[in-house]
Amino acid sequence: MAGEGEMSNVDQQSMRGFSACLALIRRDLILTFRSPGQAINPMAFFLMVATLFPLGIAPDREVLSELAAGVIWIGALLAVLLSLDSLFKSDQDDGALDQLLMSPHPLPLLVLAKVFSHWLTSGFCLTLMAPLLAIMLHLPSDAFSALMITLLLGTPVLSLAGAIGSALTVRVQRGGLLLTLLSLPLYIPVLIFATGAVNAAMQNMPYTGHILWLSVFLVLGVCLAPLAIAGALRVINE
Amino acid sequence: MNWTFFHKLGSPKWFYDISGKWLPWLQVSSLVLISVALVWGLAFTPPDYLQGNSYRIIFIHVPASFLAQSVYMMMATAAAVTLIWKIKLADMALKVMAPIGASFCILSLATGAIWGQPTWGTWWVWDARLTSMLILLFLYIGIIALRGAIHTIEAAAKACAILSLVGVVNIPIIKFSVDWWNTLHQGATLTLTEKPSMAPEMLWPLLLAILGFYLFFTMVMVLRLRIEIISRERKTRWVKELVS
Q1: Do B170 and A236 touch (CB under 8 A)?
Q2: Which of A27, B62, B63, B210 is at 20 to 30 A from A223, Cα to Cα?
């Protein structure tokens, strides 16, 4: 009987943690809908960066289709970085971050929920926009599915790894550039495997290996990054 | 087990006193080892049958690359000690090691470029090893920049410690993915002379040079650490007595 009581206690606790996460995601999404610039600006940036390449290099079909995978991925990577600056900063400004830190629920779980809602409003939107850019840059249609899969698997990793930098720079005035310096080296593996997959698909070669490695990064990120983010938030706000 | 040595190590004053005694030994031994290794390597070893005399830069390039990588590992160790035992000295070590490690990284890249010009006919190739060294430099730059941006010492210490640990988890991933990227792009890649294939008359001065560079690094680190201790502990009585 006592054992059952404990079990249900644990269950109740994890249920409460789960509903806290849902509430947090709901709150962040509502905040984004109230000021939609937060989600729209990265998408506009993504589009503009992709426009610069034909203007700056060459509008030729062959040249652009060679570059397309790299351009789209670098654009997405920079757009995610720019949107990460405000991930914890607005919560820091209005005191919501202190409430998160004092909450009885495990901080890594709450942080994971925050990163998830950030991904929904940045990486996921960028993924939805990617086919448009792929058409503009003449990416061969064989590679579309590879591009979408890599973006779906890779952009959450960008959000997770970048959130570590965002947490570390939450107290720094104008920390945007610093955040970029901290996060970009961590993004390199994702960039390599994602563009590798798209380029392989363009040459009709198998790209399952790349996709599996991106999945490994995602699993690693989901498991480890929330611990680092939570640790960073705690020590910075001590 | 007697743990007092551990507590002593954490005391800046104790370290300042004892390192003052180490310093002359470190200075003399690193100077002697590096000069012997360089004179031996540059003047007395036979030229390489393929590269002629240009390979002699190896006696600076390889030790610098060794240091660039192992200093990051030492920093990660210091970071773990900072976070787990909250030892102030470990954080000071973390702080002073970052610019030294970055300097060795730059030295390694620069000597590599100078070596690459006669051997490969170009200053830079996007070879996996070159690229991972460049990314290592980025990791160093990130840590130095983060330290400069946070003004409270405790917060900067912990933030840099976390970043160093995140970096050290990522180094194998970065290395692996850069290797993968390179092998996908160019089949047969330019490789440096592999060590087991090296003739002993070239290997010995190289090992001496590596040892000398390690001692030199320790010497520079101790020097910088002593300055950092004095500057951070300037309000304590022993430092005031020391300088007055």
Answers
A1: no
A2: A27
